[in-house]
Design brief:
The structure holds three protein chains of three kinds. Chain A is mainly alpha-helical. Chain A contains twelve helices and two strands. Helices cover about 70% and strands about 0% of the residues of chain A. Chain B is built from 14 helices and no strands. In chain B, helix 1 (about 5-35) packs across helix 14 (about 240-270), helix 4 packs across helix 8 (about 150-160) and helix 11 packs antiparallel against helix 14 (about 240-270). Chain C is α/β, with parallel strands linked by helices. Chain C is built from 18 helices and 14 strands. Chain C has helices at about 1-25, 45-60, 75-85, 115-120, 130-135, 155-160, 170-185, 200-215, 230-245, 255-265, 275-280, 320-335, 335-340, 350-355, 355-360, 365-370, 385-400, 405-420, and strands at about 35-40, 65-70, 95, 135, 140, 145, 145-155, 190, 270-275, 290-295, 305, 310, 345, 375. In chain C, the strands form three sheets. In chain C, strands 7, 8, 9, 10, 11, 13 and 14 form a seven-stranded mixed beta sheet that branches. A five-stranded mixed beta sheet of chain C has the order 2-1-3-12-6, sandwiched between helices. The longest helix of chain C is centred in the N-terminal third of the chain and has 22 residues, at about 1-25. The chains are: A mainly alpha, B mainly alpha, C alpha/beta.
């Protein structure tokens, strides 16, 4: 575009620092992981090439299916809720409420805490016997809830902690989007007598679609990678009903020493995430304004 | 749900807002409150919302019987190095994506984005062996390097740089500047708010990283705070007051960082060209 | 303006970090000082404090050797250890659960200690035979046992009195009826965790495992190639676990922390746990309890046991002096087992078990006898996965009150599948 500059050369030079880092610490280990996945791989001893056997075993492994399902369950619950929460929060911090600044801080701050801190805190709040939630429920005359120990609740409990933790990030992205919408559109709508609800549904949401579709993809990727909260809060329990795929990958690889199998499963997860994101991107493509 | 002109409705709405805000901030307060309890009061026959004997014992224990100050310093060093290197590595390529039409640009961009989708578990063993062969195990750089490519950061920067008018670059070029000069003297200064955002995200990510630093940093003195406080969790039973005191300590620097950069975070993402 | 300030801050930050980073590089240049033995431990929480005290004492009483420990939370310890062994960066001494030795010994990761120990005239005959033999593979010793920590029974003596119980229960029937008597006083009969929350419900597995052996059975077949619990023994054991919930003496969905704390607060009559809980219970005010070897609830006494062992990575063989120093540390630590016994664990040296210091400690000498009837997990690399899987399946069977026959059949199928993959 700028005459006299060589685009290909400059593109390469500007990409170079990144390319070096990316090749060394992403492409190379990724390829090595792929290589491992074709072996009965023992990191401490000898390894045997077994072709695609690891991939075949997966199809007979009920634990693989159940873990994959729990991951999907987590994605399906958290994605819509976190998008909706993020959107509502973004609307709120862009409203005329006197507390909107406080809201912005309060909603975002949990995001800066580490997974360990958030999970430990929520495991404590939800502890069946001594946790605060059940103290409140019991003092109101209810029966204690097995937040982390009842299979009906456990996954939701992990999700609730996740809502608190990460909704603020979506809020920031969506709030940024909302602030890009020109004030005049709202002003003229108001002059035409449009209610707040109409402004939101007719102006904000349609114009925010590109941001929402970006948030959607980021959220799906993040949710598929869920592990830490589950590991700390429920340990995958009760009886494996919250064990997510990455936890199973971790267990097979590092506790059961089946690293080939572990690598193969994480590759399958990678492909699933990649395909889902591509599909979502295609669906969201009509909003893409690049 | 109209913006009600009737004031009773408005007051109710404000009360509702305050309630929601209180709910959201509450877990954090509970963490602090619990950490001020004696361990025996936390798990006791009778429930006390406020500590009966407010105590700093858990904090004193954390500071005197662990390396928590080392851990805090290590985290600051590691997160600091990570954020500086993230900018060095990610800003140029984001500029290239935004402004330079070079061969393979789209493929490269999608590769970067795909990098975001790789479950980290699959990388751990290869990365560990790799860092070992460089002799970097137990070195802070091992905790830093795999974290400096931040796809979301590249994305934010790219979006922002795209929003900088081409005309600025072109006129600079006419004045005799080359691309490197343009990058340095126009793009980077104009993009400072987006750079701040990426800095902050990279700091938060690095600070909160757990499994990788645990594995590459051997000495207890070299742990990051996130790794270090995990050791507060007993192998046979949880001391809630102590572990939450650790959690509070681990979160304070993060919180200060947030307060300092709060404006940049909120405003810069808003400016970073995520278009509505 | 804002930009400049920000850039300046970043620059300052980066300079500061680089300079601090440079200081943080490995030092250990002081070659003239004492020789250092590095050690990774997995003892956190209460255990960790007792263990650190041992190390501190070692360092205070030695001038030639100093020990330096790094602690890793149990969940992630083996991940880190495995990576370090693979890369040859493991410390001089490592702690490994006896059941996990099988993952490292066959791959040649650990040093056979026999030659070194005999040249040092190490008092191997002072070690209790069972835990020492558990550290051997093909007749070679790969680790020294630091402790044994069997499953035992805790009983609240105040509540027993209140419920009119004069003798500790010896059979499952007695246990259940005593527990009911305690329920009648408004307390929990048996605190036995049966669900996973922050901790996995391993107590179920440990009890089930013990009960199989109490009846004369084995968990796996003799060659460790198949499950061996889908039979009468298994049915009786699983039924016993389910009865605790069905008879209303153990709440459904009891997690580990609650189980321990209920007993600690004096609100439960009986409690099953490893010996490691003793230290916690002792520190509780107003709790009067006794700790005894696990009774032979379904037959003769037999109890699951674990054992922490100390081992040396194989690549340290290149430095005989270091190996000798490390062994000195290991022998010193085991010889001071009474300090470690404060955490509740049973020492592995006869001299310690017979020492006045140990005998004077409450509870320990009582249940130290349990060591005679303990059963270590089967010696197979598949054990970790079996243990984790069985634990989930038992939890499921208890929570849903599954027909024992059906439950055991599916457990057997699952375990056989797992073994086949190793």
């Amino acid at each position: 575009m700028i005459p006299g500059n060589k685009n290909n050369r400059d593109g390469l030079i500007f990409s170079l620092p990144f390319l070096i880092v990316f090749t060394l610490f992403m492409i190379y280990p990724l390829m090595y992981g792929l290589y491992i996945s074709f072996f009965k791989y023992n990191i401490l001893g000898s390894s045997t090439f077994i072709g695609i056997k690891n991939y075949i075993s997966m199809f007979h492994d009920s634990k693989f299916y159940s873990s994959l399902w729990h991951t999907l369950e987590f994605v399906l619950i958290t994605t819509p809720v976190l998008l909706a929460l993020g959107f509502l929060m973004a609307l709120y911090v862009n409203s005329k409420s006197p507390f909107r600044k406080a809201g912005e801080n309060i909603f975002f701050v949990p995001y800066i805490f580490s997974m360990t801190v958030v999970s430990t805190l929520w495991a404590w709040l939800m502890q069946k016997q001594y946790g605060l939630f059940n103290h409140v429920i019991v003092s109101l005359g209810g029966k204690p809830v097995g937040w982390l120990t009842d299979p009906k609740w456990a996954m939701w409990s992990v999700c609730i902690a996740t809502f608190w933790w990460t909704a603020g990030f979506n809020m920031i992205l969506m709030s940024a989007g909302i602030r890009q919408i020109s004030k005049e559109i709202y002003e003229s709508a108001e002059m035409d007598g449009a209610s707040y609800r109409q402004q939101v549904t007719k102006i904000t949401i349609p114009l925010l679609m590109p941001t929402i579709s970006l948030c959607l993809i980021l959220q799906v990727i993040a949710s598929f990678n869920v592990f830490g909260q589950v590991f700390v809060m429920t340990g995958g329990g009760p009886y494996g009903t919250t064990r997510v795929l990455i936890q199973y990958v971790y267990e097979t690889g590092f506790q059961y020493f089946k690293m080939g199998y572990s690598a193969a499963m994480s590759y399958v997860l990678f492909i699933i995430i990649l395909v889902s994101s591509l599909l979502l991107n295609k669906l969201g493509g009509k909003y893409d304004n690049q | 749900m109209t913006t009600s002109r009737n004031s009773a409705g408005r007051i109710l709405l404000r009360i509702f807002e305050l309630f929601i805000l209180a709910v959201w901030v509450f877990p954090f307060l509970w963490m602090v409150l619990t950490s001020l309890h004696l361990e025996d009061e936390v798990v006791a026959k009778t429930f006390h919302f406020f500590p009966q004997h407010p105590t700093l014992a858990n904090y004193i224990k954390a500071f005197t019987s662990t390396y928590i100050l080392n851990w805090l310093l290590n985290s600051i060093v590691i997160a600091g190095l990570t954020m500086v290197m993230t900018l060095i590595v990610d800003a140029p390529i984001a500029y290239a994506f935004a402004k330079i039409k070079f061969k393979g640009r789209n493929i490269l961009f999608w590769m970067v984005m795909a990098g975001m989708m790789v479950p980290f578990q699959v990388l751990i063993i290869p990365l560990y062996l790799q860092f070992n062969s460089y002799g970097l195990i137990n070195n802070f750089m091992a905790a830093v390097l795999p974290r400096v490519s931040l796809p979301i950061g590249i994305f934010i920067l790219k979006q922002f740089f795209e929003g900088i008018p081409d005309a600025l670059e072109e006129s600079a070029f006419i004045d005799g500047a080359n691309r490197f000069k343009i990058f340095r003297s126009i793009i980077l200064p104009l993009g400072s708010s987006a750079l701040a955002t990426v800095t902050i995200l990279s700091f938060i990510n690095s600070w909160n990283d757990f499994l990788w630093p645990l594995i590459v940093l051997n000495d207890t003195e070299k742990y990051t705070i996130t790794v270090g406080i995990a050791n507060f969790q007993g192998s046979h039973g949880t001391q809630y007051a102590l572990i939450l005191a650790g959690a509070v300590i681990a979160s304070v620097p993060q919180f200060i960082f947030y307060v300092i950069f709060r404006k940049q975070i909120v405003e810069s993402i808003a400016l970073s060209g995520i278009k509505g | 303006m804002k930009t400049k300030k920000l850039l300046a801050m970043l620059l300052a930050a980066s300079l500061a970090t680089f300079s601090v980073g440079a200081q943080a590089q490995p030092e250990t240049a002081a070659a003239k000082g004492p020789r250092v033995v590095t050690f990774w431990s997995l003892f956190t929480g209460g255990d960790g404090e007792f263990f650190d005290a041992i190390i501190d004492k070692f360092n205070a009483t030695h001038t030639d050797i100093q020990m330096k420990t790094d602690t890793v939370k149990f969940d992630n310890y083996y991940t880190k250890l495995t990576a370090a062994l693979a890369a040859g960066t493991a410390p001089d001494m490592v702690v490994i659960h006896q059941a996990n030795l099988r993952n490292y010994v066959p791959n040649g990761q650990l040093l056979a200690l026999d030659g070194y120990l005999s040249s040092m005239n190490a008092p191997l005959d002072d070690f209790v035979a069972a835990p020492l033999n558990a550290c051997k593979t093909d007749g070679k010793l790969y680790a020294l046992p630091l402790d044994v920590h069997p499953l035992i029974m805790y009983a609240n003596t105040d509540l027993m009195k209140k419920a009119g119980i004069t003798e500790l229960p010896k059979t499952m029937d007695e246990l259940l009826s005593d527990a009911k008597a305690i329920e009648a006083t408004g307390n929990m009969g048996i605190a036995c965790d049966n669900t996973t929350a922050v901790y996995k419900a391993y107590t179920l597995t440990r009890l089930f495992f013990s009960m199989i052996y109490q009846q004369g059975g084995t968990f796996l077949t003799a060659d460790n190639s198949k499950a061996n619990f889908n039979n009468e023994y298994g049915i009786k054991a699983l039924t016993a676990l389910q009865d605790m919930v069905n008879e209303g003496v153990t709440p459904k969905g009891l997690d580990y922390d609650t189980s321990v704390n209920t007993f600690k607060l004096g609100e439960a009559g009986f409690h099953f746990n490893g010996v490691w809980a003793t230290g916690t219970f002792e520190s509780a005010q107003d709790l009067h309890f006794t700790a005894v070897p696990l009774p032979g609830l379904l037959g003769k006494p037999a109890a699951w046991t674990g054992s922490h062992t100390l081992a040396i990575p194989a690549d340290k063989a290149s430095d005989p002096q270091l190996v000798k120093d490390t062994l000195d540390c290991m022998l010193w630590i085991t010889a001071h087992g009474e300090m470690w016994a404060k955490a509740g664990h049973i020492p592995t040296r006869t001299s310690v078990q017979e020492s006045e210091a140990f005998k004077a400690m409450p509870y320990r000498s009582g249940y130290a006898a349990a060591a005679a009837s303990t059963v270590a997990p089967p010696d197979t690399a598949a054990w970790n996965e079996i243990y984790g899987t069985i634990s989930d399946l038992l939890e499921y069977a208890v929570a849903n009150n599954t027909d024992p026959k059906t439950a055991l059949a599916s457990m057997e199928k699952k375990i056989n599948e797992i073994i086949a993959t190793y």
